[in-house]
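Re: weekly structure request thread

Next one in the queue (419 aa):
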Amino acid sequence: MKNTISVLLTIFLVSVLAIGMVSALPNVEYIKINGDEFIDGDQLEVERGDELDIRIKLSAGVNEKDIEIRAEVLGYEYSDHEPIFDRVHTFDLDANDTVYKDLTISLPYKMDKDYYDLRVTVGTRTGSSDENTFRLHLKGVKHSLIIRDVIFNPEPSVESGRALLTTVRIKNIGEKNEESIKVKVTIPELGLSASDYIDDLDDGESETSEELYIRIPECIEAKDYKVKITLEYDEGYEVVSTEKMITVTGDVCAAEAPVEKKTVITVGPETQDVAQGASVIYPLTISNAGNTARTYVVSIDGTETWSTVEVTPSNLVVLNAGESKAVYISLTADDDATAGEHMFVLSVKSGDTMLKQVTLKADVTEEKPSGILNLKRGLEIGVIILVVLLVILGLIIGFNKLREKEEEPEESEKGETYY
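Done, posted below.
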């Protein structure tokens, strides 16, 4: 009798322990995939590149310790390099508590189109585990391209002022052949881009684009720049893109000196005597004291009714930085010009800017020019031209000295104006 009681007691204790061991797992209330609830054995259709968001609701009847949840897909050829797997860090769960746990797995683009099992396992350190299996039917997309690789030459950096060559490796993971695939490389911050076309790419095949040429400008900041690579296909309705970084090296060029627009204008005698039918010359010197070339226009107003004026060598003067030229205003009084003082205006403009206006005077006399008078006038003109040439020479020497000292003139000489 005692032996029978002992055996029954042992059986009871073992049963209690077994029940305790069996109950040492939380209850799986439901499993949702991408928001929809599935039960063990259900099948769902998926595509390459899809992400599966898995939510599990658990509840515990007793205190549970060291619970772990895993989600995985087996049978992928490259699982030793990129396993299709996710897990939840071990956790404890008190009796009568409920918890939600989330996992995410991604289906690689290189997976074969076939059937796979998604296994969601709940277990602890010892004992059995609760495994739910869902059948995945992996299918391709009609139109789908991926960028497998981007190669820069040179890499990983390019010197400013040099060329950057880019090749793009593309794979067609869709179910249709693709035609007229546009490959575009851009550096948005620099406003640079290059494009090329791949005429045809069969499903499952890969191809590398031609080298796309972008010249990196000189004198840009040396740093990392974002490069965007874009594919347009399926009549332009589908777009896929990726981004990489390229390092631009080289010193930033010295900043260009600000443009200086300074002009020195010198006018010879502003008042001259001229006989009826005779000519006089008013010399004008224009000197470009700036650091960039400029164009000047010389014009005369107020002589139409009593004289004829000619500007030589031209009324249009183009001067490089630091250059000076002489212009001669030759005024010939009409034979019947009224004797007395006549005034006219000399103007010098650069573009729309009026640089100088000078009122010149001519005192017309009734004296007819004679051979001696003409000779005298010729000598006077020669002296005036010589003075003008000396003034130009002096200005050139002065500019050179000013540039050496890097100083600007503070005051203008008599008859000279700075702009």
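Helices lie at 2-22, 371-405. The chain is about 15% helix and 50% strand.
Next request, please.
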